[in-house]
């Protein structure tokens, strides 16, 4: 009598999601509040706060590096960045009124200049004899390339506000145009002003040339130009205060392009023109921490003077639909940087990463950041800060055809 075949021994499934290790992020790189190592490192560089055109006589609340502040422009055009709680009895200067020489608190009328100096205490017997210690906490601000920049670090270590050879001089007929609302906006197109994830997500993205071929070209369709269909051959190199990559592509039309992208300490990016126009990049971008779990991408660009009336480059693409009008399904069909980076969570779980050959640039960035944390902890100045107001930083970025 035939016996029924035995069931094969059950195989033990491998690699299941059960029993995964503890999860953690790189807190040393992602925590940016006052007193944290990365917060202190970030505070040793000038950081852009808002586009100049959005700093007006209407006080505005801004959050940067985990600090809530008030930004405004006095009646004579000077930008100011103050701690919001009035030093008298603590109401917010958000409710203040701006005058020619400062901002007046709504409650009892103390008036502060953009550098925090108290100009008037109208309820006091001698309203103009403010005591010197009655100074509203403030941060130095300056304007360049259409952005308002702040220095939030120790005053005695304040470096020069940097200048970059990719941004100046302007070419004939050019002007600066700056954006402070992360995904950009023009006309109907509106992106989130602040993105709900760590500054490190965008910072990692800068030294990630391969996602341009995948995410932006073959996966989601052509989000920039078709030249990116070719998987690049990439070399990463350290420069004095940053990392660059050279992405070489042999194009279908026989041309060769070397696309050089630059990241500079601690959060600055010089991405060459995404339409592959030759030459130096026409913009600078910064991934600025709002707090540990939020960031703001600010950009300044050199543009033709009439560009303010035209759509931003790239937004004319046939398949372009403003981000805020897209359904979840449309965003699944054509995810972009926002979806990929928000998808990593508010702070990526670095314990779960598997960095491989194509992530070499990210490893170089993080090592440079960590060396700088040590330098600052030991009392030194981090790489890239300069005290020479006239120095112009050379930016190697560009699309170079040959
Ligand atoms: S609380 Fe601002 S003047 Fe009194
Ligand atoms: Fe991207």
Describe it.
The chain has 402 residues and is α+β, with helices and mostly antiparallel strands. It folds into 2 domains: 50-141, Rieske Iron-sulfur Protein (3-layer Sandwich), CATH 2.102.10.10; 159-401, Alpha-Beta Complex (Naphthalene 1,2-dioxygenase Alpha Subunit, Chain A, domain 1), CATH 3.90.380. It contains 7 helices and 23 strands. The strands form 6 sheets. Strands 13, 16, 17, 18, 19, 20, 21 and 23 form an 8-stranded antiparallel beta sheet that branches. It has a 4-stranded antiparallel beta sheet with strand order 2-3-4-9, with no helix packed on it. The chain has a 4-stranded antiparallel beta sheet with strand order 5-6-7-8, with no helix packed on it. The radius of gyration is 25 Å and the shape is globular. The chain starts with 26 loop residues before the first helix and ends with a strand. The model has no long low-confidence stretch (mean pLDDT 93). It binds FE2/S2 (inorganic) cluster and fe (ii) ion. FE2/S2 (inorganic) cluster is lined by residues 86, 88-91, 105, 107-110.
